[in-house]
Write a structure and sequence with these properties.
Length: about 375
Amino acid sequence: MTSYDAIVLGVGGMGSATLYHLARRGYRVLGIEQFSLGHEMGSSHGVTRIIRLAYAEHPSYVPLLRRAYHLWREMEHTAGERLLFITGGLDIGAPEGEMVSGSLRSCLEHEIPHQMLDAAEISHRFPGYRLPAGMVGVYQSDGGFVLPERSIATHVMAAQSFGAEVHGCERVVEWCEIGAGIEVKTDRDTYRAGRLIITAGPWAAQAVPALRPLAVPERQVMIWVQPLRPERFAPDAFPIFNMEAQEGRYYGFPVYGVPGFKMGRFHHRGEHVDPNRMNRDCDREDEAILREGIVRYFPDANGPTLAMKTCLFTNSPDEHFILDTLPGVPQVSIAAGFSGHGFKFATVIGEIMADFALEGGCSRYDLGLFKLERFLS
Ligand SMILES: Cc1cc2nc3c(=O)[nH]c(=O)nc-3n(C[C@H](O)[C@H](O)[C@H](O)COP(=O)(O)OP(=O)(O)OC[C@H]3O[C@@H](n4cnc5c(N)ncnc54)[C@H](O)[C@@H]3O)c2cc1C
């Protein structure tokens, strides 16, 4: 039976980065992925993902974000291709709403340069936006997007260059403790390792049943529409955004990589799903939900629909990440519950999970917000 220092279960956004950081430290690692690498069944496809330094979700994320930006640039250098695009970013909403006040709080706490803009100033500077009077935005010049599919490919290839073994189209069906290590059975073979790192995305609860109420998969839909005024939605004219509107929380991107202005709405239809059985087709109701926001806030983008795709959030109860070792099983660590805002951190999550494996659960970062025990006590 082949034996490794560490096995990474799931080679998506987080697993690919974890493999890279383990391999680069000289670990003998195996990554196991149930589908073809770069597939569209999980959470890490759709060309672009927002990255931003101002962080309405909680100021504790900012030190991780600073490191993530650094590691994105480092991976660009390693891979010889661009993965991070800076467009500036807007956190939009009512002045007293969670989005704006949370974003502002993180900027003030971490001395992040920013500007408060009202609706008229936003439309003047970025004419793709047509916001009602009363809405404001925190503008932060470090906002932008990263490329999820290219991130997975570049991290896997860099990991392989350090000797990592990667198996696609192979599903982990079971794992168990064997002394201080672990044994992993797949639909092809059985492997042993000193450590197991579970980065299974929407399938996290299938790998660790205790996570069922803590890592809940939810169907999401992204839409790409043809802008009527394309120049207003180019990367140099249109900052990425998060918007707390009366209809819900929208997010969006300039046109990049594939045709169309891309937009989505958090908790799209509130559909909790089984990732093995969910409906991956998009319908007119999905389209109508997103079109409502386009008509209202981005009328110059309101051209024909070009594409729609489903994707999966994996929500924790407080929508903060779960980064921890499993209670009572220190050789198994888990990165899960990214709750729709994890991708920008993929680089630093890889580093953290490598720290967990190497340092027995310790990390150089303050990860108090992400501990499993917050749900178990
Ligand atoms: C529509 C949408 C928009 C988003 N927008 C943003 C954004 O703008 N910015 C941002 O930061 N984040 C965003 N996110 C969130 C971000 O994309 C996710 O947090 C991130 O992709 C999660 O990565 P992951 O590695 O946990 O999951 P995945 O990339 O899905 O990886 C998990 C992998 O594990 C594999 N796996 C599972 N079980 C097994 C098994 N038994 N055997 C073998 N392999 C297995 C799966 O096949 C999969 O490849 C968005 C998410 C969605 C859905």
